[in-house]
Specification:
Chain A has about 90 residues and is mainly β. Chain A has one domain (about 1-85): Archaeosine Trna-guanine Transglycosylase, Chain: A, domain 4, CATH 2.30.130. Chain A is built from no helices and nine strands. Chain A has strands at about 1-5, 15, 25-30, 35-40, 50, 60, 65-70, 80, 85. In chain A, the strands form three sheets. In chain A, strands 1-3-4 form a three-stranded mixed beta sheet, with no helix packed on it. The model of chain A has no long low-confidence stretch (mean pLDDT about 90). Chain B has about 400 residues and is of the alpha/beta class. Chain B has two domains: about 20-135, Rossmann fold, CATH 3.40.50.261; about 140-375. In chain B, about 40% of the residues lie in helices and about 15% in strands. Chain B has a seven-stranded parallel beta sheet with strand order 9-10-8-7-11-12-13, sandwiched between helices. Chain B has a four-stranded parallel beta sheet with strand order 3-2-4-5, sandwiched between helices. The termini of chain B are far apart. The relative contact order of chain B is 0.16. The chains are: A mainly beta (about 90), B alpha/beta (about 400). At the A-B interface, strand 7 of A face helix 6 and helix 10 of B.
């Protein structure tokens, strides 16, 4: 079972360190304990998986900082990337 | 305390190489420059597309770039080649380089008569300079005499978690031993500038960091304001996106890791060299070539370039050490890459362990071991920044 990398304790996404198949179990070590996620879709190497539920416009936190916002609600285990994230700095979609 | 071997110069930092550089003051002299370099081993050519019909800030950036690069410690001596009528005169470039104490020769094609005469003169002068350069011996220097240029390009998700942190560890070590490093590519700092500003040694430096990023962001907004350019507005590349980077902020936060954790001593303008040791932010755009040219023009003797997707590029006369945090990129492209930091991800090595290996690589490269880009004679990264409309 893959352990995804959570870079900062405040992050709500983790980085998958190998390609993940839809339905695979992914572990993320949070300060409060290990979280077991089920990948909601295939996720490519190096991409992000949501650790918690995110509502539309909630900040995506990586490296302990806001890197963008959710375009729509995001479930735990979802692939987090261009399809569901917008950023107010630089490109908007 | 670490040391490296280099060539002492009359002024400033020691050189890591002892090349004779052939530099045109204007693009019209490019072929003559190439032909001279082809006929003299021990030379590097620095051809470029500018020097003609420029005014204002645009011309000033060209002057700064050519002077900064011409004065670089890795060059024992320089041959400047001009056409004669150009806006940026060969004499201005030659005089600026000569002020460092470096041997400089100047050839003006229109004065020599034709290209064959100019080439002939240049080849004979190159022979003389190369023979003189060969007599110089290396000396031992402490790391306080090293200035590292920091660069990333072809970023993917591994850059921010492996390659850049490993480089940041090296940056911290070098600065701790009295050396210097420069972080640049202001487009790639958008979203992370507040993190950097917090590390500034004074509030004025912190404000300068915020200012240069804001200025760059405004320039970009102006450039993409027209509705017919909307499909040209993305600041992150398809390679970044395929590699897992979703936003410019994510890219910037991963990128700044290469600057380590230490205090930021100042902000340098394009072409400005440093007065005291430390970690600096250099104001250059995100184009790989323009950024590395800026680092070289400001005096970095060696550049470490992290790349997730892989790039073969190099700079004439200045070692560019290519490192990746992506082991599969390293395996595919190791012909063009110098170091694999990917073991942080796939073997669970610590950043410090990999950082130690990278520091050794930097020192051995500084002392003479050529990078893949030097062996391959890659020279893509010499690119002068333009400023259209000031």
């Amino acid at each position: 079972m893959l352990t995804a990398l959570r870079i900062d304790p405040r992050d709500n996404v983790a980085v998958v360190l190998r390609e993940v198949q839809k339905g695979e179990e992914v572990l993320v070590n949070m300060i409060t304990g290990a979280v077991h996620l089920t990948a909601q879709s295939d996720i490519p190497f190096g991409h992000k998986i949501a650790v918690t539920t995110l509502l539309e416009s909630d900040p995506i936190i990586k490296y302990g900082e806001e890197i963008g916002n959710a375009k729509k609600p995001i479930q735990p285990g979802a692939w987090v990337h261009l399809q569901n994230v917008y950023c107010k700095r630089g490109r908007e979609d | 305390m670490h040391t490296f071997y280099g060539y002492r110069r009359q002024q400033g930092l020691p050189g890591l190489r002892n090349w004779v550089a052939i530099i045109p003051s204007v693009f019209c002299a490019n072929t003559v420059v190439r032909r001279i370099a082809q006929q003299a081993a021990g030379t590097v050519e620095l051809i470029h597309p500018v020097g003609c019909s420029q005014v204002g800030l645009d011309l000033e950036l060209t002057a700064k770039a050519l002077k900064g690069v011409g004065r670089h410690p890795n060059f024992y001596g320089v041959i400047v080649v001009g056409l004669g009528c150009e806006r940026f005169q060969a004499k201005e470039l030659a005089d600026s380089i000569a002020a460092t104490g470096k041997p400089v020769e100047m050839i003006v094609i229109q004065e020599e008569g034709d290209t064959q005469k100019a080439i002939d003169k240049g080849v004979r002068l190159a022979q003389k300079l190369v023979e003189q350069a060969a007599k110089q011996q290396k000396e031992e220097f402490p790391l306080s005499e090293l200035c590292l240029g920091l660069k990333c390009g072809g970023t993917d998700a591994t850059s921010g978690i492996a390659a850049n942190p490993a480089l940041g560890w090296v940056t911290d070590q070098i600065v701790a031993e009295g050396g210097s490093a420069m972080l640049t590519e202001v487009t790639e700092l958008i979203g992370a500038e507040h993190v950097l500003a917090r590390r500034a040694v004074t509030p004025i430096v912190g404000q300068k960091i915020l200012d240069i990023v804001r200025n760059m962001e405004n320039k970009l907004k102006t450039g993409t304001a027209r509705s017919d350019f909307q499909n040209r507005s993305a600041l992150i590349s398809p390679g970044n996106e395929d590699g897992g980077i979703t936003t410019v902020v994510e890219k910037a936060l991963g990128g700044i890791h290469k600057g380590g954790t230490g205090p930021i001593t100042g902000v340098l303008a394009y072409g400005e060299t440093l007065e005291e040791h430390g970690l600096y932010i250099l104001d250059c755009p995100g184009h790989d070539g323009e950024a590395v040219t800026g680092l070289v023009a400001s005096g970095c003797q060696v550049v470490v370039f992290t790349t997730g997707r892989g790039t073969p590029t190099g700079f004439p006369g200045v070692p560019v050490i290519k490192i990746t945090g992506n082991t599969s990129t390293y395996e595919r492209m190791k012909y063009n890459l110098d170091f694999n930091a990917g073991e942080i991800i796939d073997k669970g090595l610590s950043i410090a362990e990999v950082g130690e290996g990278l520091l050794e690589k930097v020192i051995e490269t500084a002392s003479g071991v050529p990078t893949k880009a030097e062996i391959g004679m890659n020279d893509e990264l010499f690119c002068i920044t333009r400023s259209y409309g000031g």
